[in-house]
């Protein structure tokens, strides 16, 4: 049965009264509710949906931009425009509530609505909680009561838009809706903050957010005193001591004095910041966090918000909104240009990701999947969460967040800003850091390659890769790909027995799947042969090489190409290289081909291993010759690499000559 708009308004009002425990006379009459209908469901609802749909379109347009600087500017401008629209919407709600009450005490000259949190920071979305307090010129009880009634009307109007998550089932309501469950109808979105950051307050907390500015300041002082009663006295004593010192000094520029006093007075802010660091600790390198859904608000959005605000507090720099805070840190030489650019990028990724998640779910749903949506399984549970196709920006987000987190930790205990590392760019591009981030996102192949690269660069920690991957496969049967990956990781740990156990399972598993004649099986036998050779088991090594060759010869498609790759992959000396050359020359009629580049490179490396450097030079020159033939007058990366390799070979020859002369 379709629910009439009038019935919905009346029912919502009954639930609203029950939820707020309103026992006084009706704040709004049934007739006024009916008069509100057109405003609620034509004007206001239409305005809200226009804002929400406009943001969806803005996000799509932003994603299409290719240059990062353009994206940053688009997101920054988009949020400024969005917040102007949201403030206009809230202003319309306030004025409608004032019109309904018709109370002469509600003179707009006597009060001001002060927006809080994301609404004040220009980072609110069309699905963000409405958070505000009201400042009054005069603590007149009649004015405060009229304002409180105005806020009740505002909340009712917002609830009637159908995006407020009220606990309907906790209140008894007459069955005028034929048993319709409102929990199913309503998805949380544009709503009053349920945590109490509005003049409605909370039942379990004794505070009032309709106050004069002087009384509102008392909350800050009382809050400070409650946290640390001794701190206030300490601050006063220290403040007096500093004033006495400065009064006896001849100094015309008092800016350093003001900054140092401000830093002392903001000591409570740094205490809160330390708590924030513990609360929002970055755990991308923890096994327990691997593959877990992200909470877009607590794990992404609040990271730059808390950390950048923390730096502003520590160094008493300027700025009200995030972008201005970054500019303030830059102007005060706390950070450099590159650092500021990266912090802006991090901020914009956080804001865009949060808005994208809300818009995609059309609600304040904060679960954020890091699965590639092109690879998402057909699971109802998975489809309920928003996923992204390209996580490159999110990876860079954490590459910036990790050094920023460390920088803030260090800054908390730094008294002299001249000791701050102003060369910090806030971008950790180390292979290990990127690998741990990829593991967090279950991108095992990318992480494995980065870890191996880190190992070649001198940082050997394959144990981390092994730990993550074993965690990944512990609750699922291993497929061939898993056996290969885990085998390579154990090989980097020099666990040869463990490697053999894994690689020996691959041919059996492939045979069960009718894939015994495949390059995967060839690769498995070649890998086993290499390990057996390392262990000195020559007979077993040769047996697996012969088995690999038998399989290669049975592969029908592109047999010759496969045979060339097979011989190159053996890395067993000149005999195999010569066989690869024979195949290639017969196949390509001794014409230049990209396969010859691989063969000659392999031949050069084998020659160097046996100290046959003149032959290595010959092969290096053949590589350059083939590249020049294939890519006439075209600059290619492989040509540069080949010249560098040739130079290194000549360097080895000079070192050997020097050694012989000595």
UniProtKB/TrEMBL annotation:
Gene3D superfamilies: Tetratricopeptide repeat domain (1.25.40.10)
InterPro entries (alphabetical): TPR-like_helical_dom_sf
Domain of life according to the entry: Eukaryota
Name this polypeptide is given: 3185_t:CDS:1
The species this protein was found in: Racocetra fulgida
């Amino acid at each position: 049965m379709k629910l009439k708009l009038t019935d919905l308004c009346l029912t919502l009002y009954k639930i609203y009264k029950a939820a707020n425990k309103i026992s006084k006379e009706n704040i709004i009459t049934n007739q006024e509710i009916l008069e509100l209908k057109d405003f609620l469901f034509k004007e206001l609802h239409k305005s809200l949906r226009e804002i929400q749909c406009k943001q969806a379109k803005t996000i799509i347009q932003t994603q299409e931009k290719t240059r990062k600087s353009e994206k940053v500017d688009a997101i920054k401008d988009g949020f400024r425009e969005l917040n102007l629209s949201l403030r206009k919407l809230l202003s319309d709600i306030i004025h409608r509530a004032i019109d309904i009450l018709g109370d002469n005490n509600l003179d707009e000259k006597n009060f001001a609505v002060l927006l809080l949190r994301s609404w004040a920071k220009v980072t609110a979305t069309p699905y963000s909680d409405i958070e505000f307090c009201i400042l009054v010129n005069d603590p007149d009880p009649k004015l405060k009561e009229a304002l409180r009634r105005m806020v009740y009307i505002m909340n009712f109007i917002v609830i009637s838009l159908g995006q407020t998550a009220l606990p309907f089932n906790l209140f008894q309501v007459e069955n005028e809706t034929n048993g319709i469950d409102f929990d199913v109808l309503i998805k949380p979105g544009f709503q009053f903050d349920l945590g109490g950051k509005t003049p409605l307050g909370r039942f379990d907390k004794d505070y009032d957010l309709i106050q004069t500015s002087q009384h509102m300041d008392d909350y800050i002082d009382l809050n400070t005193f409650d946290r640390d009663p001794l701190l206030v006295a300490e601050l006063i004593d220290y403040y007096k001591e500093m004033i006495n010192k400065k009064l006896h000094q001849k100094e015309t520029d008092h800016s350093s004095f003001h900054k140092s006093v401000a830093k002392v007075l903001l000591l409570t802010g740094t205490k809160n910041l330390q708590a924030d660091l513990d609360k929002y600790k970055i755990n991308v390198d923890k096994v327990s966090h691997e593959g877990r859904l992200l909470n877009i608000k607590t794990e992404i959005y609040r990271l730059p918000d808390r950390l950048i605000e923390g730096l502003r507090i520590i160094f008493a720099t300027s700025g009200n909104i995030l972008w201005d805070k970054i500019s303030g840190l830059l102007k005060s030489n706390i950070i450099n240009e590159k650092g500021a650019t990266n912090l802006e990028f991090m901020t914009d990724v956080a804001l865009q990701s949060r808005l994208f998640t809300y818009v995609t779910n059309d609600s304040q749903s904060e679960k954020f999947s890091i699965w590639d949506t092109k690879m998402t399984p057909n699971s109802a549970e998975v489809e309920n969460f928003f996923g992204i196709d390209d996580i490159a920006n999110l990876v860079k987000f954490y590459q910036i967040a990790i050094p920023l987190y460390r920088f803030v930790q260090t800054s908390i205990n730094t008294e002299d800003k001249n000791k701050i590392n102003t060369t910090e760019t806030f971008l950790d591009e180390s292979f290990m850091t990127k690998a741990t981030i990829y593991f967090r996102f279950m991108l095992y192949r990318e992480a494995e390659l980065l870890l191996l690269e880190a190992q070649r660069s001198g940082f050997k920690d394959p144990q981390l890769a092994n730990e993550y991957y074993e965690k990944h496969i512990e609750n699922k049967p291993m497929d061939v790909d898993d056996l290969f990956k885990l085998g390579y990781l154990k090989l980097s740990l020099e666990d040869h027995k463990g490697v053999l156990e894994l690689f020996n399972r691959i041919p059996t598993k492939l045979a069960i799947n009718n894939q015994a004649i495949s390059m995967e099986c060839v690769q498995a036998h070649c890998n086993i042969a290499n390990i057996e050779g390392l262990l000195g088991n020559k007979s077993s090594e040769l047996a697996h090489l012969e088995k690999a060759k038998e399989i290669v010869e049975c592969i029908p498609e592109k047999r010759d190409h496969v045979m060339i790759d097979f011989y190159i992959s053996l890395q067993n000396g000149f005999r195999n290289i010569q066989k690869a050359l024979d195949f290639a020359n017969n196949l390509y009629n001794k014409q230049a081909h990209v396969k010859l580049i691989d063969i000659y490179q392999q031949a050069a490396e084998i020659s160097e291993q046996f100290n046959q450097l003149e032959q290595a030079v010959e092969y290096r020159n053949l590589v350059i010759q083939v590249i020049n033939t294939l890519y006439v007058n075209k600059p290619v990366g492989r040509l540069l690499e080949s010249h560098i390799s040739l130079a290194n070979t000549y360097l080895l020859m000079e070192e050997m000559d020097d050694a012989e002369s000595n």
